[in-house]
Amino acid sequence: MNIIITGDQDEDARRRLRDAAPSARLEFAAHVDGSIGAADAVVGHVPEALLARAPRLRWVHSPSAGVDGVLSDGLLASDVTLTSSTGNGAIPLAEHAMLLLLMLNRDAPRWMRAQSERRWDRHVHGELAGKTIGLYGLGHAGLDLAAKAKAFHMNVLGMRRRTGVPAPGVDELFGPDDFPRFLAESDFVVVTAPLTAATAGRFDRAAFAAMKRTACFVCVSRGGIADDGALLDALRRGEIAGAGLDAHGVEPLPADSPFWSLPNVIVTPHNGATTRETARRGFDILLDNLGRFARGEPLRNVVDKAAGY
Ligand SMILES: NC(=O)c1ccc[n+]([C@@H]2O[C@H](COP(=O)([O-])OP(=O)(O)OC[C@H]3O[C@@H](n4cnc5c(N)ncnc54)[C@H](OP(=O)(O)O)[C@@H]3O)[C@@H](O)[C@H]2O)c1
């Protein structure tokens, strides 16, 4: 059994990977190349052109939670099982969303501007208590955020694809047809859903127009779920009050992007889940799956390729 593992691993990590699958031959590589022909599994991205040259390939594992970057048309059409690291960054993503909510609700950038000028600038700001958060996505990150929002005494609304699945901490669960009401009732709309065919561009002009003029939009999962042009217009015209953006349609966000300078926008550089713990949880998922694959056991975090996550 041959497994190609891409990415950077130190000797200790390589030892642990070998120990997880002692019967397999592991090849550590910067990226996938000609040796794909003999590979049974790949950890990392398999370029579309190489898939046709991989007759033995049965498993691809994504080191990221989101698989939008690895789920090519060829992989979708194939019998290859795709697994993800979903859940690895849920806790820091939820923490980052709370940070953005608090900063937006208290106009924290105003304090930071005043501090840089040594100016004492007190202002009346908001409380999260009693406000309504609308969670678009109720997976690992969304449900952790629901619990955190509850601890801040917020009212929690949620949307997910599978409405029959329980959503602890969520006061009201909305189905896809109820999107306008979900938006209209939220003081903060927070996107934690993956980028898929169904979510791409979901936050368009109509969506922002359906939100309260006092509401803020926060995205911590993936750019492209919001139509950036529509979001910019909504922010400039005051159709919504502000935005906190860790994920952007184009990354890195270009230096001339208007998002950098809008006073009601907080930009962070896709950094919300960049913690050592995220890396550790992701590595643990990989170790677990490697062992399962080597032993012929069912894999965890199997992606529903048709759904895109
Ligand atoms: N910024 C970063 O550094 C960073 C780090 C890690 C992850 N991420 C992103 O965060 C995303 C979420 O991570 P996670 O671990 O929470 O993933 P997850 O556990 O797979 O949760 C995804 C959630 O999105 C929901 N969803 C999918 N399609 C939807 C749709 N069309 N409408 C409404 N909801 C939909 C799912 O619904 P069901 O519950 O019904 O299946 C699920 O609740 C990842 O996909 C990744 O893109 C970003």
Automatic annotation (TrEMBL):
This is D-2-hydroxyacid dehydrogenase. Residues 41-303 form the D-isomer specific 2-hydroxyacid dehydrogenase catalytic domain. Residues 99-272 form the D-isomer specific 2-hydroxyacid dehydrogenase NAD-binding domain. The keyword Cell membrane does not apply. The keyword Transit peptide does not apply. The lineage of its organism: Bacteria, Bacillati, Actinomycetota, Actinomycetes, Streptosporangiales. It comes from Nonomuraea cypriaca. GO terms for molecular function: NAD binding; oxidoreductase activity, acting on the CH-OH group of donors, NAD or NADP as acceptor. Belongs to the D-isomer specific 2-hydroxyacid dehydrogenase family.
